[in-house]
Design brief:
The complex is a heterodimer of chains A (about 230) and B (about 220).
Chain A: H1 4-14, H2 28-46, E1 50-55, E2 63-65, E3 70-78, E4 81-85, H3 88-94, E5 107-109, E6 117-121, E7 135-136, E8 146-152, H4 174-187, H5 195-219
Parallel strand pairs in A: 4-5
Antiparallel strand pairs in A: 1-7, 1-8, 2-6, 3-4, 3-8, 5-6
Chain B: E1 3-5, H1 6-16, H2 26-44, E2 48-52, E3 63-65, E4 75-78, E5 81-82, E6 84-85, H3 88-94, E7 111-116, E8 119-123, E9 133-138, E10 149-151, H4 154-168, H5 174-180, H6 182-193, H7 215-218
Parallel strand pairs in B: 6-7
Antiparallel strand pairs in B: 1-10, 2-9, 3-8, 4-5, 4-9, 7-8
């Protein structure tokens, strides 16, 4: 498992401060803030780690929020049964009374809902087994609950230069994350500004994102609908 | 296949950089060489590995963690039998209840479902525990050091040297870096020409090698 220090060391060396940021041109806090942004961006755009989370289905409740650790919902199952995705237009055309219907859910959508929310259609007419706090990992179909699968949010929202990176961040991504941080540091309107090198860093970061996305789509057959 | 030590590759990189060991210290070169090896391994996977899931199958369990040693799974065998590959959506649409199905229903364990880099599923779930599961994929190489050798095709070696050499020149900035980064354009060009990762959208990157004053740059008429 990689550490933030692996990224910090690369960034400092490339900013000609191999012993760490001591000259005052860049502060460690600037590095850590940039890293937090870059990691979320990388995880969201690549979806290299998925969060499988189950929560209780409640009778009469159609709208649910994905767990806080899910960046975006890609697949939904209820009672272990895979539900196809739809949208409001399709529902309105096919079944105008869909919003009032009840029964075992057969589809889901996210249209017009808050970020991270989804609506089951029809509205469940039963209550599943209680799961206080939700359950991560393989769902238990007999509990008849809602399971969401989606890109996982990084475990940490802030970093120090010695934090251990989450195991969900692939070791191979470390060099690309360093380029992403460098792009941010070289684009700031200060004495480090160097747009030519920032452009190179951005290209390297984008290369990493594109490569991991391609691995997910072509090797992992990740055919989740693009939402960005 | 030729075998190279870290010192071999370091020497090749240093020779590209006029053996300037004051600016490009060996430890920096070693780090960027290992970074380049990682990029090539991720991009092309020239070194693959097969690892065993600790404990094998668990009765009626569908989801398994990819063991350490591979970057991502490309093939799975259960009890010596090769599994077909399907996607989460495909298996969901074809067999909506797949997470409830086990091989005692009469359907043999026959497919594996990639979920993310570190998780995969089996359909159907085996009812017998402890059957061996073998996972194949690009090897998660540890950093090359000391007298350890890397067995790699020469074409990949050239790419590793190119990548490491121009990455090191990043600290120079200015025209020297711009010229070195032409090697990155070459890397992108090679990647686009490959058949692997055809859906990859490569970044756009152009190095400006010669300052040309144009009308637009000057904001006036060209003299």
């Amino acid at each position: 498992m990689a550490n933030v220090s692996d990224i910090y060391g690369r960034v400092c060396r490339r900013m000609l401060e191999p012993a760490g940021f001591t000259l005052g041109k860049v502060a460690d806090t600037d590095f850590c803030k940039a890293l937090a942004i870059v990691i979320v961006d990388f995880m969201n755009r690549t979806g290299v780690a998925k969060q499988i989370n189950s929560q209780q289905v409640v009778s009469g409740t159609s709208t649910y929020s994905a767990s806080a650790t899910t960046l975006r919902v890609e697949h939904v199952l209820v009672g272990g049964v895979y539900l196809g995705r739809t949208n409001r237009d399709e529902l309105d055309c096919r079944s105008p009374e869909w919003a009032a219907s009840t029964g075992p859910p057969v589809t889901w959508h996210e249209d017009g809902l808050a970020v991270g929310a989804l609506q089951l259609v029809p509205t469940p007419d039963y209550t599943g087994t209680a799961l206080p706090g939700g359950l991560d990992g393989e769902p238990t179909p007999s509990q008849r609950n809602l399971t969401t699968v989606g890109a996982r949010r990084p475990n940490d929202t802030s970093y120090t230069t010695i934090t251990a990176l989450s195991s969900t961040i692939p070791n191979g991504a470390v060099p690309y994350l360093a380029w992403g941080v460098l792009e941010k540091l070289l684009s700031n309107d200060d004495e480090n500004k160097d747009l030519a090198r920032a452009a190179y860093c951005q290209a390297r970061f984008e290369e990493g994102v594109a490569l991991y996305r391609s691995i997910m789509r072509e090797a992992m057959l990740d055919d989740a609908e693009e939402t960005f | 296949m030729p075998a190279y030590t870290l010192a071999d590759i370091r020497g090749m990189v240093q020779s590209r950089l006029e053996n300037n060991t004051l600016l490009y210290q060996n430890s920096y070169v070693d780090q960027d060489v290992n970074e380049a090896i990682g990029v090539i391994q991720l991009r092309y996977g020239p070194v693959s590995a097969t690892v065993t899931v600790p404990g094998g199958t668990v009765a009626n369990q569908h989801l398994y963690a990819v063991p350490a040693g591979v970057i991502y799974p490309t093939a799975v065998r259960v009890n010596g039998v090769a599994m077909g590959k399907t996607s989460f959506r495909e298996i969901g649409l074809k067999r909506p209840n797949w997470l409830s199905e086990s091989d005692d229903s009469g359907v043999q364990v026959q497919s594996w479902v990639p979920i993310d880099l570190k998780t995969f599923g089996l359909w159907t779930a085996p009812t017998t525990g402890s059957l061996p599961i073998l996972v194949t994929g690009p090897a998660d190489l540890s950093a090359l050091s000391g007298s350890a050798t890397l067995n790699i095709d020469d074409k990949y070696l050239e790419m590793i040297v190119d990548l490491a050499a121009h990455t090191l020149a990043f600290v120079e900035g200015g025209q020297i870096f711009q010229q070195a980064s032409v090697l990155y354009q070459k890397f992108i060009g090679r990647g686009k020409a490959d058949e692997r990762w055809q859906r990859m959208k490569w970044p756009r990157y152009f190095a400006q090698l010669k300052q040309a004053e144009t009308k637009e740059d000057l904001g006036g008429e060209r003299q």
